[in-house]
Amino acid sequence: MNNKIKNITVYSVLIAIMVIMAFTPLGYIRIGTGIEITLMSIPVIVGIALSGMKGGLVLGAVFGITSFIQCFGMSAFGATLLSINPIFTVITCLVPRLLMGLIAGGVSDLMNKKKCKKTFTYAVVSVLTPLLNTVFFVTLLMLLFGQSEFILGLQTQMGTTGIWAFVIAMFGVNAGLEIALCLVAGTAICKAVEKAKR
After folding, report:
1. What is the largest CA-CA distance in the chain?
2. Measuring CA to CA, which residue among 139, 126, 130 is closest to residue 95?
3. What is the DSSP letter of 72?
4. CB within 8 Å of 151: residues ≥ 6 apart
5. 90-145: per-residue pLDDT in tens?
6. pLDDT for 48-97, tens place per residue?
7. Of the residues 11, 13, 103, 186, which has the maximum number of CB atoms within 10 A of its CB?
């Protein structure tokens, strides 16, 4: 029972942190139209370190829900997607974050079963979580909105010919920065939480 209470407390704290991050400049660093470096993956990484797939799924869902709420005027990019197709926008916001948490959490569970070093597991999860988030988000964005005037207009504006050139130009820099930030911060925070638990 004590363990359940501890888990609920930890989830509550992480969810509260995510809500604060989502609605303050702490969670999203916005650079121009469409370029957003998100730090929202970091609490998900901590949740995965604490309880694997379950933590990843719960906190991934919170990430997705807060991401969708951003579309109501807080993110110009998200607001434009919402105006094009609200259902596709919900899918694009929520599904990548659920899959991200599920898969990264599953990898963490597997590495723990294999008795991998904790620091190595934290580092792998800290890289994998933002990477999966970007891959799934961009894939769904291009599948659901790739032929919209908005995305085609951005392609023209950026002077890119072909879908891959556009994806790299649009998301390459912020994806790289997110992964680097999550690797450093995620690994360090997970190690600190592990020491605190001891």
Report:
1. 59
2. 139
3. T
4. 141, 142, 145, 166
5. 999 999 999 999 999 999 999 999 999 999 999 999 999 999 999 999 999 999 99
6. 988 899 999 999 999 999 999 999 988 888 999 999 999 999 999 999 99
7. 186
Contact yes or no for 36/30 (Cβ under 8 A): yes
Residue 198: both structure tokens together:
């001891």
Q: Tokens 């970091």 label which residue?
A: 42
Among 15, 22, 162, 158, residue whose Cα is nearest residue 78: 22
The neighbour count for residue 101, using CB atoms within 10 Å, is: 31
CA atoms within 13 A on the CB side of 58: 20
Q: For residues 56 and 102, is the Cβ–Cβ distance under 8 A?
A: yes
Phi, psi of 45, rounded to the nearest 5 degrees: -60, -45
CB atoms within 10 A of CB 149: 10
CA distance 195 to 156: 50
Structure tokens at 31: 């650079």
Neighbours of 23 (CB within 10 A): 14
